[in-house]
Write a sequence for this structure.
């Protein structure tokens, strides 16, 4: 029998668009002893978490709870529960994760129509609303922030257009939740999915979601009590076509998260501890101060990168505060620089996908990783790594420029 | 803004059929700082974990990795990937979780036929094999250990029958893995799903699975590279009907777990830490000694319960070592006793489902919870609780009987 060593991961500075570093207080919460799933203390933790998810998404929705799986499990749970085979679904795509929404919707049996925007941009005013009028979809699914391109799509107008044409609007806010404003009720988002391992800085493994009564009405038309829990005589169905997944069946999951506590899966105890504590720290910091913090460190990072002579990828008017995409200078092997950052400096940044692979680096300033120490460490390390790769840059300028941004912030406050 | 208190769960003695107590060393592993998902240190952890899952299931299968979700996510991933709409699926049912297999298979579009055994028993020699000959299913799905009834189904004969008729055999070993022998290769199991929160004593949130080349061949006929990762020109499909889930698509997941590391979800870092460390401790204890430990504490528990005058539910010939079902004495309110155990003694035991609800208690002796301290504490507490509920029992006999079992074990070894 092979002997395995005790787990002992290196300490990393993680400046990717996720997963990012986790607050040690959240890590510590996961080391607490577990409770049984129907222990009243545990169901209190479930209820606390629901309250905090509502606050996070700025919603009064009754339903706000996590799906037990990584971020895309939340997306699939919402889409597979809300899309009936044959439904018309519109997906406006402006990066890789728009394609994922198409892939999932097609696997749910939707008739999908798409609208594509060039990578590095988002949809202009009116574009999506016009497509909604043209396509008359039952459901529109769109990404709020595309980590593949670093672009952020405004949603208010799309929310109004969906409501006007009675389409459900599903928003993938995996990358943005906790880092920039998401007002589910005000923006008329019918369902929103957040990610844990990005701006919330909780390990991957849960996906907080919320949905309103319009979405719930669709679920309830498709509801089946689980075989083995229902009365054998009570086979009558609720009319709609059954949801094709049991694990992702929101009509069953909401019974588990309701006072009825109808048994479904065994809730992922330690992950729920992490989510509960992580959300507590997010709300204690305050959403607005947290969003401002993301903007501040983004400004310092961008000033540093520009001072180094680097240029940013993508339309600056729609830049996500928590992801900065940098054009890799000509003649530089981007992977070699990334590897040097990781192995010499202990810093991880990301490459990208598809046509952007090898063309841009993606730097995250998300949640717990979004701090002055990390930004300055990264800029100094990138400065040194580029020099080591023979790139001629004004050495030392990047860190000074970032410090200037931080100083001006203090002056402005002082 | 409401203030939430710091998370501070009570210490519980958890004697349910899962989730159960977690080894503090596993809890501690979850508090380690996280690594990025493509960090070479992290992919080493992924590979270690695959090796250990192979050892756990006693298999040489290439594919052995966790699904990121709770146990039933593993079941659904296997079934949804292996069942094409219209496939003939046979499910022998002898408890609640057999019904779950039917529910999931139906949602995958299978034509399901069932074979039902009375709760408290399993299928006799020849029964399932005969049904396989009659029904000629493409796939047979069966539960190895039914926590709802405490019964364990022998699998060797079913494995042979499936192989002979070229059906795939999928086994739900959620409750048994790590507590009793599962020999995937020897028993000809084509796919097996384990649970973490039971005999492995790792928090819920991951489901280790393994499958062989026969299962893989079916997957590969249905494979699609994810839209957004594949070359746009490369739309050609592989023949079979696409898998209806993206999150649970094993043909994509195995690429993520292969050296290709084709991006799918973001692996659940801290849960993988827990799984890796938990499996390391299981294998360090040794599978055979671990199974023997489960038998030893079961024997002490059963002796204690009998000495108290209680009777067990179910056919003793097929009793699971890690779950003991007890008939609730007449005139006793089972829920009141459970509540007293929890609130006075800090011990959790379980009730059951369906027709057994209110008729039996289910006591787990699983993994880390399966130890002398817990068994003696439970017997003493149950003794006191029954007395408090006016049940006439030979007070003190239970603990003495259990001690006798432990002493005889020591004598036998000495």
């Amino acid at each position: 029998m092979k002997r395995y060593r005790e787990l002992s991961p290196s300490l990393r500075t993680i400046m990717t668009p996720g997963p990012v570093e986790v607050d040690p207080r959240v890590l510590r919460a996961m080391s607490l002893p577990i409770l049984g799933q129907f222990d009243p203390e545990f169901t209190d933790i479930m209820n606390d978490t629901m309250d905090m998810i509502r606050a996070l998404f700025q919603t009064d929705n009754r339903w706000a709870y996590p799906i037990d799986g990584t971020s895309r499990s939340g997306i699939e749970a919402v889409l597979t529960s809300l899309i009936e085979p044959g439904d018309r679904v519109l997906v406006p795509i402006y990066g890789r994760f728009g394609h994922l929404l198409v892939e999932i919707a097609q696997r749910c049996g939707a008739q999908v129509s798409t609208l594509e925007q060039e990578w590095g941009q988002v949809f202009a005013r009116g574009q999506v609303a016009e497509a909604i009028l043209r396509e008359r979809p039952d459901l529109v699914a769109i990404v709020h922030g595309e980590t593949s391109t670093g672009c952020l799509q405004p949603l208010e107008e799309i929310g109004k257009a969906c409501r006007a044409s009675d389409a459900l609007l599903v928003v993938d806010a995996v990358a943005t939740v906790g880092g920039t404003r998401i007002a589910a009720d005000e923006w008329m988002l019918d369902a929103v999915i957040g990610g844990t391992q990005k701006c919330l800085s909780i390990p991957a493994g849960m996906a907080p979601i919320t949905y309103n009564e319009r979405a719930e009405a669709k679920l309830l038309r498709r509801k089946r009590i689980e075989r083995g829990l229902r009365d054998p005589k009570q086979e009558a169905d609720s009319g709609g076509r059954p949801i094709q997944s049991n694990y992702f069946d929101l009509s069953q999951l909401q019974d588990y998260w309701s006072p009825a506590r109808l048994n479904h899966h065994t809730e992922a105890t330690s992950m729920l501890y992490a989510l509960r504590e992580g959300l507590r720290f997010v709300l204690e910091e305050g959403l607005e101060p947290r969003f401002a913090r993301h903007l501040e460190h983004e400004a310092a990072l961008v000033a540093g990168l520009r001072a180094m002579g680097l240029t940013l990828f993508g339309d600056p008017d729609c830049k996500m505060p928590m992801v900065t995409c940098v054009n890799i200078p000509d003649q530089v092997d981007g992977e070699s620089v990334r590897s040097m950052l990781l192995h010499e400096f202990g810093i991880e940044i990301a490459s990208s996908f598809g046509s952007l692979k090898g063309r841009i680096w993606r730097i995250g300033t998300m949640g717990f990783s979004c701090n002055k120490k990390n930004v300055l460490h990264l800029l100094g390390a990138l400065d040194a790594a580029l020099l080591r790769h023979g790139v001629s840059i004004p050495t030392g300028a990047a860190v000074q420029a970032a410090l200037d941004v931080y100083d001006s912030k203090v002056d402005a406050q002082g």
Observations:
- The mean pLDDT of chain A is 95.
- Chain A has two domains: 23-282, 287-413.
- DSSP finds 13 helices and 13 strands in chain A.
